[in-house]
UniProtKB/TrEMBL annotation, chain A:
Family: Belongs to the ABC transporter superfamily.
SMART domains, sorted: AAA (SM00382)
Pfam family, one: oligo_HPY
Ranges where the ABC transporter domain occurs: 6-257
Record-given protein name: Peptide/nickel transport system ATP-binding protein/oligopeptide transport system ATP-binding protein
InterPro entries linked: AAA+_ATPase (IPR003593), ABC_transp_ATP-bind (IPR050319), ABC_transporter-like_ATP-bd (IPR003439), ABC_transporter-like_CS (IPR017871), Oligopep_ABC_C (IPR013563), P-loop_NTPase (IPR027417)
CDD domains (UniProt xref): ABC_NikE_OppD_transporters
Protein source organism: Peribacillus huizhouensis
PANTHER family according to UniProt: ABC TRANSPORTER, ATP-BINDING PROTEIN, TRANSPORT ATP-BINDING PROTEIN
Record carries keyword Iron: no
From TrEMBL, chain B:
Record domain ABC transporter: where: 6-257
Segments crossing the lipid bilayer: none
Keywords of the record: ATP-binding, Cell membrane, Membrane, Nucleotide-binding, Transport
Name of the molecule in the record: Peptide/nickel transport system ATP-binding protein/oligopeptide transport system ATP-binding protein
Organism from which the protein derives: Peribacillus huizhouensis
Entry superkingdom: Bacteria
Coiled-coil regions, chain positions: none
Localization terms from the record: Cell membrane
Family label: Belongs to the ABC transporter superfamily.
A Pfam match: ABC_tran
TrEMBL record, chain C:
Keyword vocabulary terms for this entry: Cell membrane, Membrane, Transmembrane, Transmembrane helix, Transport
Family the entry assigns: Belongs to the binding-protein-dependent transport system permease family.
Ranges for domain ABC transmembrane type-1: 92-281
InterPro entries cross-referenced by the UniProt entry: BP-dependent_transpt_permease, MetI-like, MetI-like_sf, OppC_N
Record's bilayer topology term: Multi-pass membrane protein
Record's protein name: Peptide/nickel transport system permease protein
Species per Swiss-Prot/TrEMBL record: Peribacillus huizhouensis
CDD domains associated with the record: TM_PBP2
Keyword Lyase: no
Membrane-spanning segments: 30-52, 94-120, 127-148, 154-174, 213-238, 258-281
Length: 325, 343, 294
């Protein structure tokens, strides 16, 4: 078996909260990411799903070191990125690129598309002007735009086209892994399908590895090989997409899947309707964070935090119900 | 009392900016019966939200302007009413909820004040009665401890809770029609399921008709009886949800249905997409607005705009070509589309 | 392929930024008027020797306090018999020099401080902005007077003194702008690409903060021209006999009853210039607003 490309172990990020009393250090914090571990194999797509506030976007920024974690390790090709010296980190990060959610906000409005796509090359001083230009034109072609688009400004493009520009920029340094943070959620359905097809084609063509973050379970199922479900900063379930969709173990995963809107007007699906919304992350519930909303709550759930258990087929989940099996 | 609640005929809305005129809505017609829900679907810029807001005459004028058509609500044409008469209808007979529940609530008033305001605006009740009614409404939309929550402010509520408050305000005067503009788009899936469940429950209780504006066909299947598919300001297909889902006839509706990722999409097959992007509404559109993106388009499509035709009972389509090919199921459709594209 | 074909069809042609900016500006009648005033002022300053009918400093004791139009003096003469029109024309040079110089000085230093405060935040922000608060706690003219008495007189020092007074305003405007631009997703994107701070600041943050800066600078020019006039009026500005609008005003005040146009003419010049610049600044602000369409 090949080595994992990315190895994340016990990653944590606690954001301190400002104390209401001035000059006094607060000891409260939001545990945005609270002990997350996973591997990403070369060429695979790992999906991360969860509702807003579950920490999935923070996790993405920890993996590529946009923010530094409170503790934990992120190993890329066997080398820990955390605490790596700045020069080497810059070099390593060329292989880890990111595509962001908002196609309108993620492009500098005062730069032409050509300048935007060439920017990573300029930053890392790769090639001369002519070779950079050649690479830009090549990439425009790859993502389905045309060479004359290089001279245009972002506001002249539609949402889907802008996301193509973002993808081109992420590809320019030939990365190994691209972290996609909700890359299609701001797009209309028909455009969404275009962008997803493009991502899939590129993966096949350039043997890319993706971490694909989304709240849309249908998109994740379609895109990903394995899926991690996050709830309040923790991974509560992880497995192959088949396992997660056909044999979900955690009640939260079951509720998420059942909340997907109907496929047709003839559908009569049974719903698990959860109570309330995600609790306040400053004071998460004791024990299992999900217990207050869980339809299968037991006494132990409010006192003891469940551990991730291996249930076979590379499928892990953290729920006290699973212990009994 | 006739069963027909709302009849929209040939509604046209334009936006003017300098010398350019944007035809945002271009001849929309539909009817809505009592206790019936209609979905208006389309992508951004299709005119679905403008249609909804112009029903209440809420589009900003200028630059917007309802330039033609009729909006018959219980037989009265809303476009001929005075501003005062229109105000009496808003919130009372027809109310509206919006996509972003945070910006549609006023941050400086308590939630209770805002519900009571809407009640007192349209009903002659004392302050005490209004408060009673407000508590009752909050309870109805599933907000726990409503007496306590009444004095809280919008920022103290979660997104789902705020949308519940919006629904409470909208339903506080027992409207006959509720217009919901993407009410669940900003919410998480689990909360969306809660809200849709709530809307269905309340509809039974209040006998309200709902116009649901959405880009998510799943929401339409969930809650609507009829659906109106809009493209570039035009209605291109209109019928019952079963008809539209099982036998869509307009190539754009096919594309819309097929580009949704559902469980039936196989693992590593490519998704069906609609190539290109919607037309610029500031320019005069000749012929069918979808023609430039349509794989079936022929000469006539670029020169003559198709009429809305009733192809089957209660199933209208605006397309020049209604052939047996349109009776295909999804799988057959996609092979067929590919064959056409190749040839 | 079909996909990219369709994309080609739908992208519309848009004119370049600069052309539409100028067009937007000209369409606004007030801004066009402001622009006209400014151009007039600049041309007057450049071609002063050609325009002026007399030497501005040449005294003629036989022809003091002449009225408007008398004996070939377009706007009359002052108490030393100097031609008022010629002094006005040469005074425009001083006004332009001080207006542009002081604003440039204030803008460069203020923006730099504002960028540092806004971008790095924390301690930098606290220290820089508290100093700025301290500077702006003094009334502007008092600050300028204090600085002039420390620096000594002379045109260069007038520019520096007024420039220092302008620093806090620029620092605040730029800091606010940087704080909001810093939040944009494209800044995070650039960071994720591995860019250094200098690149983020000079290639992304500054270009996106420039619009309000330009508007603020334009408006400040008017203020600086008034400040120069005030300083000269108080006798702390440019030294006699050099003509400046402020010093002309100062000379005129003693003859307000006898010969009122000696004071009112430079006063009017200041008024028209300031109004013109402000109108231009207003128009520029509207034209730079991306929400305004051509």
């Amino acid at each position: 078996m090949s080595e994992p490309l990315l190895k994340v172990r016990d990653l944590r990020k606690y954001f301190p909260i400002d104390s209401p009393i001035p000059f006094k250090k607060s000891n409260q914090s939001v545990k945005a990411v609270d002990g997350v571990s996973f591997d990403v194999m070369p060429g695979e797509t790992l999906g991360v799903v969860g509702e807003s506030g579950c920490g999935k976007s923070t996790m993405a920024r920890l993996v590529n070191q946009l923010i530094s974690p409170s503790s934990g390790t992120v190993e890329f090709r066997g080398e820990n990125l955390i605490g790596m010296d700045a020069k080497k980190l810059r070099e390593t990060r060329k292989s880890i690129q990111m595509v962001f959610q908002d196609p309108y906000a993620s492009l500098d409005p005062r730069k032409t598309v050509g300048e935007l796509i060439a920017e990573p090359l300029v930053i890392h001083r790769i090639g001369d002007k002519a070779s950079q230009k050649k690479r830009v034109l090549e990439l425009l072609e790859i993502v389905g735009l045309s060479h004359y688009h290089a001279k245009r400004y972002p506001y002249e493009f539609s949402g889907g086209q802008r996301q193509r520009i973002n993808i081109a920029r992420a590809l320019v340094l030939n990365p190994d892994i691209i972290i996609c943070d909700e890359p299609v959620s701001a797009l209309d359905v028909s455009v969404q399908a275009q962008v997803i097809n493009l991502l899939k084609e590129l993966q096949r063509e350039y043997n890319l590895t993706y971490i694909f973050i989304s709240h849309d379970l249908n998109v994740v199922r379609y895109m990903c090989d394995r899926i991690a479900v996050m709830y309040l900063g923790k991974i509560v379930e992880m497995g192959t997409y088949k396992e997660i969709y056909e044999n979900p173990k955690h009640p939260y995963t079951k509720a998420l899947l059942s909340a997907i809107p109907k496929e047709s007007p003839h559908d009569n699906k049974e719903r698990i309707i959860l109570k309330d919304a995600i609790p306040n992350p400053i004071h998460p519930p004791t024990g299992c964070h999900f217990h207050e909303r869980c339809p299968f709550m037991m006494d132990i759930c409010s006192t003891k935090i469940p551990q991730l258990l291996d249930t076979g087929n590379g499928h892990i989940a953290s729920c006290h119900l699973l212990k009994e099996h | 009392m006739s069963n027909e609640l709302l009849k929209v005929e040939n509604l046209e809305v334009q936006f003017k900016s300098g010398s350019t005129v944007t035809k945002a809505v271009n001849g929309v017609s539909f009817t809505l019966n009592r206790k019936e829900n209609i979905g208006i679907v389309g992508e951004s810029g299709s005119g679905k939200s403008v249609t909804a807001t112009s029903l209440l005459r809420l589009i900003p004028t200028p630059p917007g302007n309802i330039s033609g058509g009729k909006i018959l609500f219980e037989g009265k044409d809303l476009l001929t009413l005075s501003d005062k008469e229109m105000r009496d209808i808003r919130g009372n007979d027809i109310s509206m909820i919006f996509q972003d529940p945070l910006t549609s609530l006023n941050p400086v008033f308590s939630v209770g004040d805002q519900i009571m305001e809407s009640i007192k605006l349209h009903q002659k009740v004392s302050k005490k009665e209004a408060k009673q009614k407000a508590i009752q409404m909050l309870q109805l939309v599933g907000i726990p401890a409503p007496e306590k929550r009444l004095n809280m402010y919008p920022h103290e509520f979660s997104g789902g809770m705020r949308q519940r408050v919006m629904i409470a305000i909208a339903l506080s005067c027992n409207p006959k029609l509720l217009i919901a503009d993407e009410p669940t788009t900003a919410l998480d899936v689990t909360v969306q399921a809660q809200i849709l469940e709530l809307m269905k429950k309340l509809q039974d209780e209040f006998n309200t008709s709902i116009i649901m504006i959405t880009h998510d066909l799943g929401v339409v299947w969930e809650i609507c009886h009829k659906v109106l598919v809009m493209y570039a300001g035009n209605v291109i297909e209109y019928g019952t949800v079963e008809e539209i889902h099982d036998q869509p006839m307009h190539p754009y509706t096919w594309g819309l249905l097929d580009s949704q990722i559902t469980e039936s999409v196989e693992d590593h097959e490519m998704l069906t997409t609609i190539p290109g992007s919607p037309p610029d509404l500031r320019q005069e559109i000749k012929g069918c607005p979808f023609a430039p993106r349509c794989s079936y388009a022929r000469d006539i499509c670029f020169s003559k705009a198709p009429e809305m035709v009733e192809v089957k009972e209660k199933h209208f389509v605006a397309c020049h070509f209604q052939t047996k090919e349109t009776r295909l199921n999804r799988k057959e459709r996609s092979t067929h589309v590919r064959a056409v594209v190749k040839s | 392929m079909a996909e990219s074909q369709a994309i080609l069809q739908t992208t519309d042609v848009v004119e370049t930024n600069e052309r539409s900016l100028f067009r937007k500006l000209i369409r606004n009648r007030f801004a066009a008027f402001g622009l006209f005033i400014m151009l007039l002022l600049i041309l007057t300053a450049i071609f002063a020797p050609v325009i002026a009918t007399h030497s501005p400093d040449k005294m003629n004791v036989t022809k003091t306090l002449l009225g408007i139009g008398a004996e070939g003096h377009l706007l009359g003469t002052d108490n030393y018999g100097r031609d008022i029109f010629s002094r006005l024309v040469y005074g425009a040079r001083i006004s332009i020099l001080v207006g542009l110089g002081a604003v440039l000085f204030g803008a460069v230093i203020g923006s730099l401080l504002g960028v540092i405060a806004g971008y790095f935040g924390g301690k930098f922000d606290s220290i820089i902005m508290r100093i700025m608060d301290g500077l702006s706690a003094f009334p502007f003219i008092l600050l300028a007077i204090t600085l002039m008495s420390v620096l000594g007189q002379g045109l260069m020092n007038v520019i520096i003194a007024i420039g220092i007074g302008n620093i806090p305003g620029f620092a605040r405007v730029v800091r606010g702008q940087v704080l909001s631009v810093k939040q944009s997703e494209y800044i995070e994107v650039t960071r994720s690409l591995g860019a250094k701070h200098s690149r983020i600041i000079f290639h992304h943050i500054l270009p996106n903060s420039i619009a309000p800066l330009i508007v603020y600078a334009t408006m400040s020019i008017a203020g600086a021209i008034i400040s120069e006039a005030s300083l000269s009026f108080l006798g702390l500005g440019v030294q006699p006999p050099t003509a400046s609008w402020g010093s002309m005003l100062q000379d005129g005040k003693n003859f307000l009853v006898l010969n009122p146009h000696m004071a009112t003419i430079p006063g009017l010049a200041i008024l028209i210039t300031v109004v013109g610049i402000n109108l231009f600044g207003d128009g520029l602000r509207d034209a730079l607003d991306p929400k305004m369409k051509v």
